[in-house]
Design goal:
With about 350 residues, this protein is of the alpha/beta class. It has helices at about 15-25, 35-40, 60-70, 90-95, 110-160, 165-185, 190-200, 215, 225-250, 255-265, 285-300, 310-320, 330-340, 340-350; strands spanning about 5-10, 30-35, 50-55, 80-85, 100-105. Strands 2-1-3-4-5 form a five-stranded parallel sheet, with helices on both faces.
């Protein structure tokens, strides 16, 4: 019958390693390292279910090995049972503080070793099972959230004769920009925040549901009064999402991002945008990212009142300006990210928003 679990025995005494192997090898796969340095090299390719680790060894001792393992999130998960020649209360206390699950002393008592090893591995299997369950449930919640978010966004956009492709493109453009900004300025934007911004970006025009059809669907040029009504979709979007946040009593990073994006994606870096005339870094970063994604998509898509610009024309308008759009409208760091993503934006435009 195949052995499911692997134990890494780390001890500089081959005789003592052989003694432990004799106790455990019938039930477990056994790997051996005769020093702390070798053990760390083994851990680069093998992730055992348990380590039996000698405290006192030449070079890197057992405590040193665990201190190094604790710096790696994956290695830190491996349970450790320290082994020692003496019943030393100080060493036992220090080992447990480092995260060891148990302690055994030499000479080994086979029944004690067997029980402690079995308990440690069973606890690890139970913990791993719980982690997988949490990951599965979390993924289900995220999929449900994204489906609701997509449906709300599609409902708002459908009134403007815009299809789901627009939503997909905005999400993909925003994702590219956010990831690039994370690479360029990791202190400004974490990887997790970049993912959240991309996920929340489709909600940007949710406020359009409150704009009258006579204005939203007008094929010709808007009057100043009608344009002011269009501008109100940012205010409406912020209001409905804030009310949702209050009613559901949710104060999450995702909800805050939704409000920021819906309310501020038409603000301009030079302060000439709407609805609040925010300037520079007063504008939430999420909105600064979605703003460029939205402008690029608007330029490259045909509408009843305008032709579609080519990728090259749209990039030129955003990066150099055309009298209506100006580089000063955008965060220069996001513009730099856009420049670096020239080919990636073109690929998404060509694909129409579908996955490549």
């Amino acid at each position: 019958m195949p052995k499911e679990n692997t134990i890494l025995i780390v001890d500089d005494s081959k005789e003592l390693v052989d003694a432990l192997r004799a106790i455990l090898e019938d039930e477990y796969n056994i790997r051996v390292a005769l020093s702390g340095e070798v053990a760390l090299r083994v851990l680069e390719s093998v992730k055992p279910d348990l380590m039996l680790l000698d405290v006192m060894m030449p070079g890197i001792g057992g405590f040193g090995v665990v201190e190094i393992m604790n710096q790696d999130p994956e290695l830190k998960k491996i349970p450790v049972i320290f082994i020692s020649a003496e019943n030393d209360l100080y060493n036992e206390s220090r080992g447990l503080k480092l995260g060891a699950v148990d302690y055994v002393t030499k000479p080994y008592k086979p029944e004690i070793v067997t029980i402690k090893v079995r308990n440690a591995i069973e606890n690890k299997m139970h913990r791993d099972s719980l982690e997988r369950l949490v990951e599965k449930r979390t993924a289900e919640v995220v999929r449900s959230r994204d489906a609701v978010l997509y449906g709300m966004s599609l409902l708002a956009e459908s009134r403007d004769n815009v299809t789901g492709d627009h939503i997909n493109r905005i999400k993909r453009y925003s994702e590219l920009l956010a990831k690039e900004l994370h690479e360029m300025y990791p202190d400004m934007l974490s990887e997790a925040e970049a993912r959240r911004i991309a996920a929340m970006s489709p909600i940007h025009d949710i406020g359009k549901v409150r704009v009258p059809d006579s204005v939203l669907l007008k094929p010709g040029k808007l009057t100043p009064e009608e344009f002011n009504e269009i501008k109100m979709h940012t205010v409406f979007g912020g209001e409905v999402l804030r009310k949702t946040q209050q009613l559901m009593e949710i104060d999450s990073a995702e909800m805050r991002l939704m409000v920021e994006i819906a309310e501020s994606h038409h603000e301009r870096y030079d302060g000439s945008g709407y609805p609040s005339g925010l300037k520079g870094d007063e504008i939430p970063l999420s909105a600064r990212i979605v703003a460029i994604a939205d402008v690029y998509d608007a330029l490259t898509m045909a509408r009843p009142y305008k032709k579609a610009f080519t990728h090259e024309e749209a990039m030129d308008i955003i990066l150099k300006g055309d009298g209506r759009t100006d580089p000063a409208h955008f965060d220069p760091r996001v513009l730099e990210a856009l420049k670096r993503l020239w080919n990636e934006f073109l690929a998404i435009k060509i694909s129409g928003g579908e996955d490549l």
